[in-house]
TrEMBL record:
One family name in Pfam for this protein: DNA_pol_B
Domain DNA-directed DNA polymerase family B exonuclease: 126-319
Protein name, entry field: DNA polymerase
Lineage of the species this protein comes from: Bacteria, Pseudomonadati, Pseudomonadota, Gammaproteobacteria, Alteromonadales
Domain called DNA-directed DNA polymerase family B multifunctional: residue spans: 399-759
InterPro entries in the cross-refs: DNA-dir_DNA_pol_B, DNA-dir_DNA_pol_B_CS, DNA-dir_DNA_pol_B_exonuc, DNA-dir_DNA_pol_B_multi_dom, DNA/RNA_pol_sf, DNA_pol_B_thumb, DNA_pol_palm_dom_sf, DNA_pol_type-B
Catalytic activity: DNA(n) + a 2'-deoxyribonucleoside 5'-triphosphate = DNA(n+1) + diphosphate
Amino acid sequence: MINLKYVYNYSVYIKWDRTLTQAIYQGFILSRQQYSAKNTQGITLCYWLSSDHGPLKVIIENQQAVFFIPLSAQHTANTLLAQANIKAQFNKVELCHFSGNECVACYFNDIKSLYTARALLEQAMPIYEADVRHSDRFLMERFIKGGVWVTGNATTKNGFIEISDAKLKANKDYTPTLTSVSLDIECNGDGVLFSVALVGNGLDCVLMIGEQQLQSDSTFEIDWCYDEINLLTKLQQYIINNDPDVIIGWNVIDFDFSLLQERAEALGLTLNFGRDNQPLYINKGHYTRLTLPGRCVIDGIDTLKNATYRFDSFSLANVAERVLNESKLIKTDNRLTEIVRQFNEDKLSLAAYNRQDCILVNQIFEKLKLFEFAIVRTQITGLELERMGGSVAAFTNLYLPLLHRSGYVAPNLGDHGLSFESPGGYVMESTPGLYKNVLVLDFKSLYPSIMRTFCIDPLGLIAGLNAPEQAVEGFNQALFSRTQHHLPKLIAHLTQTRQEAKESNQPMLSQAIKIIMNSLYGVLGSKGCRFYDPRLSSSITLRGHEIMQTTRKWIKVQGFEVIYGDTDSTFVKLSEDKSPEQCNEIGCQLVHHINTMWQADLKQRYDLQSYLEIEFETHYSPFFMPTIRGKKTGSKKRYVGQVTKNNEKKLVFKGMETVRSDWTEFAQEFQTELFETLFTDNFEIQQLHDIINSYTQKLYNGEFDRKLVYRKRLGQHLNDYIKNIPPHVQAVKKYKANHPEFEIKRGQVIEYVYAVTGAELYTGKNTLNYPLYIQRQLDPVAQMILSALNTTSESTQASLF
């Protein structure tokens, strides 16, 4: 018998036997590749890891890619592939389709054969899971989500350790410490490079094309380059020498790296930015997929959006201003023109501007903990660090290996054969008006709780339909198995983990789990997801309708009026004589009563344990619910309330002008002042008229001119606007007609105003159309409040003019 001994040495376990020495490392996956290597019989997988011992290059050879077909189609497939001289291996597997048809696995020794076979066979038969990349499937089936244990034959290379004949195992406890560099490029309108800045991991430099100049600012280095080829060659050497795990930037994949690749190809260069002298790969399809072996590239905009941060514009200038209270060094609206001017006339200023953008990106990542968010998101979903979209891909990563272990392959889009649409969330009719006390009772994670309580699950639907006598009834003839399912258990695990994250002060983990849980319904309700079935999504939303309506009924029985409800929130009116303490006590009593009622109701009707949990969310005092503009019926998803915390009063706006980017700062300030006055204890309606008259007078005096600016993103290229030309585009085209040198890109935010001649770019010298602003910005806000207070439209108009 071989005597094995393990010795712990930091993050490495050394394993001896009589013939070999192997190291067991722990690391975190940075990049993944699959390719057909020379002198091998199958596909080679290459994973680069960040570890406490430096970069690890993990090689796994002789792999086979796979997809599945019906067992009944095997003979046909074999014949077609043989005729096309495509080698494949058919293996019987204990898997079947949701229809119950048995499946067979088709294995291929190279990726090209799989793609060719798929294109050939899909004309004659269903093919399942052919779109799952083997480098992803290999990790998915082993439940590897970022962190891994890896063992194999380790060899020390130049700057990294290569592990061949590797074996991988999930390591959920490993969290990496990543090194990063921020990258930003400057160029002209045709994409010709001017400079590239690199800041982070000990680097602080700008590579600038031009003759050397005396630099007054010695805090950073300018490396002067004589042309683009020289710049790109030096950039490659900087990245190789610095050897970061991660490169970050702002729109860095779609713009910076894509342009670098385009310029390199135009100049006949290969950008070997990866570790082990590996080249950069960029594939453009539905989204731009970038592979940089040994490193990952993380975009700040995508990461912010996936972390559910909201900004009226995700431009670096706007986000830096909002998050850091810092500005870009070029503040003009036409930055491109100024960049070209500085390159030709003031390269030192351009270098400082280029560098400052990198600094701002680094500071945003640090302050908002975006690295931490990206890491925990990978640890939950198994997606690549840089893969910031992909709720459907995350769901597939989590669900597919569980489905396989239950004996099923994943269905294709539309396999259910159903065409009806699922309804959206339940929204009650509102009762408009001004209220003294309103409580908001909110169901905690309503849709995930419904899925967990009522066993809603893709596999559960199939198993329930096959064994209806023990199933939980859904909607639209759906039935769900009480025992054969995965999502309820997954949601239970995520719920517990999130609670532990809250208790241990891990806000990024808690936020990432919340985002994943909230995306589960969206994925099942998306026709782009292979698991979409309208019976699943409608069983969630219609159950939500039932829960909201029943909850409203139970609250009414308790003697309270519900004035509004939206998806998972119920708004309860209390009498005006209640003190804040009494309102809080009633809120607590109501949630206890409702939770108890749901537990008893679901036990009695379905013999189910209820995971529904309503919480006392907010006490608004006062609270305002407007009417639909020009009507007497109440609006939806629009209200204003005042909350008091730590003896401080704060207005909360939902769906109102103050939180909408298509309203000016003037209208937002006006609305805020109206509500601050409306919510005072000794309010009199004349006070509102006084505010209206004051704002009108100041408007005509020009005191609000800077606050009359609209901001709108250019969603298309300027020339793409032909038939429907919105005001902000009209403003740009009008300005460009008189200033042909003016350049603007898709995605830039346009600042414009309404002048007497129509929409114009804001210059600070515009002759503004004040009556139009009163009509479109001031009057609608005033009428919304005054009409709700039973003030006629005529009196509103009289107060304005």
